[in-house]
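Researcher: For the record, we're logging two predictions in this thread. I'll number them. Prediction 1 follows.
Model: Prediction 1, sequence and structure:
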Amino acid sequence: MKRFVPWLAVIIALLIIAAVLRQCRNAGAANYQTAMIMRGPVTQAVTATGTLNPVINVQVGSQVSGNIAKLFADFNSQVKAGQVVAQIDPALFQATVTQAEGDLANAQATLELARVNGKRTQELFAKKTSSQADVDQAMATLHQSEANVKIKQGALDKARADLEHCTITSPIDGVVISRSVDVGQTVAASLQAPIIFAIANDLTKMQIDANVAEADVGVVKIDQNVDFTVDAFPMETFHGKVVQVRNAPITVQNVVTYDTVIGVSNPDLKLKPGMTANVSIIIAHKDDVLQIKNAALRYRPPDATPVETRRYCD
């Protein structure tokens, strides 16, 4: 074994010298790559992300508070304009209407009595058996009774309107995409109208609300073609057109974007509300132009060799 030790050291030294020479030769050589020049299409596009939404999406709420007695629609239900979709328990509102009708009848009776008293007082004043003060008092009472009738009539109209609002109808033809309440649940409309249903008018026509960066919004125009994909169908490309570029800025963590509305046709109902779309807005497109790969345009001359490698080779 002692005889082979010197030879082993010599072999290792030769390998090290060969590796150093190879590295120096590679460092001094030009680093480039060749590619064939071809013809084909070239496209310039602006990329963004957005959310698919129905073009018309109406939130149906309640103007009155109460318990949900009945629901006549559910998720994915087809509804027509004017169709009853929910019913709030009308017992309390019916009682309010009955009370308002009684108050109005009482006010009307008081008005009739005030008219009779006013006429009688005027007749007595004509016969010099009543004073002017009595006539003025009778006329004032008559006018108060007339005003009270109007007040009670307004209260009755309001009570009837509240009773009608217990029956909730669909304002448009469409599909129910969201239901927020169940039978027996109490809705409170004291501060704002609670949402019961969300109804989309036509899911065959949808739109994408895409957030385009401020650096790219200058080249986005109406009627430009758009290609986009969704995660549900990663191998399929859908198409649309830019229909609106809104001027209102959206600022999130000092990043400014602009809402760009893209019209989308959805005849087979594959696309669903809320899907995330990866959007490419086609800015420019040319067919049959010369194409060169970017790798062929990158060249590092020998002088650009890293400093550490040059020092080691020297």
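Researcher: Logged. Prediction 2.
Model: Prediction 2, sequence and structure:
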Amino acid sequence: MPDSEELQKKSAGAAKWSLTTEVIVKIISPISQLVLARLLAPEAFGMVATVTMVVNLADMFSDAGFQKYLVQHSFRDKEDLHANANVAFWTNFGVSVALWCLIAVFNDPVAAFVGNPSLGFPLAVACLSLPLTSFSSIQMALFHRSLDFKSLMPVRLASTLLNFGSTLALAFMGFGYWSLIVGTLAANVVNAVGLTLLSEWKPGLFYSFDLLKAMFSFSGWTLLESFAIWLSTWAGTFIVGHFLGATELGYYKTPITFVSGCFSIVTNATTPILFSSLSRLQFDRGEYVAYLRRFQFVVALFLVPLSAGIFIFREPLVALLLGDQWGASTLMFGLYGLVQGPMVLLSYYSSEMYRSLGKPRVSMLVQVLFLVLMTPLMTVGAMRGFDAVVWADTGSRLILIAINQAVTHLVVGLSFCRTVWALKEQIVCTLAMCAFAWLTYGLVSDSCSGVALDIVGCIVVYFAACLVLPRSRGVLLKLVRGDGFKLH
């Protein structure tokens, strides 16, 4: 078991670099989305959402859970780790090439199956991402395992900038959804080349079916779990696209993309750190729970008020970020934002716990149960119209939280009531912020500058309330010093 103090220092340092990277990336990405939302029609985003759904499914099968195995498993030494990395790499690469060939040959039937028969050729081109990502996924896992997020920063920024530049240039030239597809491929090329050059480990001519068999005992369940997550993530997209069409799919999926982008500044920076750290602490129950509680508390300081703020200011945010043509997506934008913070803290992090304890089958069963309940709910909503879909989507996400909290109590022994009670300071401070917004928003809602000042006022009220409460004040001061993710 690793030294606890050393792990705390590494996780704190990793958080700094990961969060810095995500902040920069999320400053660049919304600028791109702001322009694209005005250059491209909602139908284009709906079509790309369909393509992305297929690419993500194929990519999930090609990886087969090897990334999480390399992060979670305890290896004898570096040589053993690198041998397993070689087996994972070549398996991943071989499967990704085979899947791309199948999709390229049967592109029209696949496109018709997901509800967009005209997307056959674009789908085949977009799936070139599969062999490209296979060149970087194993290296990414090894960087995550060692909590070396500093080395990942230049590659992530370079790929984001290339995606930004190429996508906008092609959109201005009138290439429509092709601009989004080509931009993604360009970013994948940079990731593949950059991570391969930076990684200490390089693919070698080694393969072992014995190692593959041992890896698959864990990765097989992870693959099933990933497939269940894919189904539950994209089932709504498939149902909306099938029953309501590409325009409504754009209204449904684009707010999810924007709001997820806001939350991913924090979640993308912290979730890999949480999984890697919990995996190292899995044999020490006291340290494991202490680190998890601390982690949730720190992240909740930002996600709880963010959820409430997105819901309160949903109308001006949609007008600012997406433009007038996206007014029909306002309720989806607000409700998705309202539930996303609790989803991260009480559902996504539960999945990381199961995996870190070597129990991906538990996460898989959770996703299957959620899918069984969510699919009929979303289908009934889609049959009744777009507004019903929005409420059905919100209800399904609350169902997932409830399932994960029940399973977390049974498997890990963590009480939902104690988890919520541990976050009481963030909840109280957020309620104070909401009260301020309730008193002031109606007075300034007709003015863009007034809304901006109101948002700033809400932020000031929230953090002022946090500074009054002892634990929140202590954590904020530690975050300023850069050691907010330490246990003590």
